[in-house]
Amino acid sequence: xxxxxxxxxxxxxxxxxxxxxxxxxxxxxxxxxxxxxxxxxxxxxxxxxxxxxxxxxxxxxxxxxxxxxxxxxxxxxxxxxxxxxxxxxxxxxxxxxxxxxxxxxxxxxxxxxxxxxxxxxxxxxxxxxxxxxxxxxxxxxxxxxxxxxxxxxxxxxxxxxxxxxxxxxxxxxxxxxxxxxxxxxxxxxxxxxxxxxxxxxxxxxxxxxxxxxxxxxxxxxxxxxxxxxxxxxxxxxxxxxxxxxxxxxxxxxxxxxxxxxxxxxxxxxxxxxxxxxxxxxxxxxxxxxxxxxxxxxxxxxxxxxxxxxxxxxxxxxxxxxxxxxxxxxxxxxxxxxxxxxxxxxxxxxxxxxxxxxxxxxxxxxxxxxxxxxxxxxxxxxxxxxxxxxxxxxx
Length: 394
Hints:
Blueprint: H1 4-19, E1 29-33, H2 40-49, E2 56-63, E3 69-71, H3 76-81, E4 86-91, H4 101-113, E5 118-124, H5 132-146, E6 151-155, H6 165-170, E7 174-178, H7 192-205, E8 210-215, E9 218-223, E10 229-233, E11 244-249, H8 252-264, E12 270-276, H9 289-296, E13 305-311, E14 318-324, E15 330-331, E16 335-337, E17 342-347, E18 351-356, E19 359-364, E20 369-370, E21 375-383, E22 391-393
Parallel strand pairs: 1-2, 1-12, 2-4, 4-5, 5-6, 6-7, 7-8, 8-12
Antiparallel strand pairs: 2-3, 9-10, 9-11, 13-14, 14-21, 15-20, 16-19, 16-22, 17-21, 18-19
Helix pairs in contact: 4-5, 7-8, 8-9
InterPro entries: DUF3142
Pfam families: DUF3142 (PF11340)
Protein name: DUF3142 domain-containing protein
């Protein structure tokens, strides 16, 4: 029989462990399939990623400007071949102030019946807080029409200030909290500290399972001459360019930090993460598949970026290239210091010339990353020395 003193010590240790936080558990990972055009590279990405994924959350339909639901042609055979359940996502324009509830509910229910293997329905509607009561009413009706089929929604941090959030969450089975691209684009795409704060607050409000949507992509935002945002180019090219543009990117290391926090100290009701979006070789603003896998698996994200110079098309000038020899994507260096005997130089593709007291630099003007085993020209220079030595400054 154990000694009473030993039992007391064991009890104290157990209480201490409980006080330190929730026990870490393996995270489950879902992924949004947000492509509107299904290509061979998308099918390849599905097959290469299925071993990491619990569910696919597939954009199946979205409303037009008049509130009419337009279906997206998805490859159900390609999805079925992965052996993973599918949650169909319906995107309702956040600017819509009203719609025909009866017609929209009937169309969503029809989506469920259009093919086998549907594991749930998700509604993506980024409405303002003033619209939350009406949204909750719609969700309640939709849930009744779906019967036992699970219903989830995407949720915004802005809703945390509204008491009506409780009613919205009460109408569904699960929520996915979005922590990226929820502020002004000038504030950036993703902030680790803010995301952690939002997750903690949401956990206190939610009485049901919730997931956190994490970014693995970048966007180009354009503004006009008056500072008004006119275009966001992410998974689809923008229709117009403005007087000012900026590349926004979610750095793999930053996202990995939040992922580790969620794993090591999961909040109450936290069920896992959902990635936006499934990366493909055609998606120039998403991480590469190897980088995404490395972040999910918690592997080291060691950058292996080098700067090289080589003869260019213009006689006497050298092209400056960044090369990533690593197996994961790397953030673009903040600056490149050029040789002291360089007479002239200039930057391109996200870099611009910076003249300092100690010499010439190429300074990063656009955030972004360099994919694994790729290279990018970032400038050119004219130097007198035969040996060129470019220093990468982070």
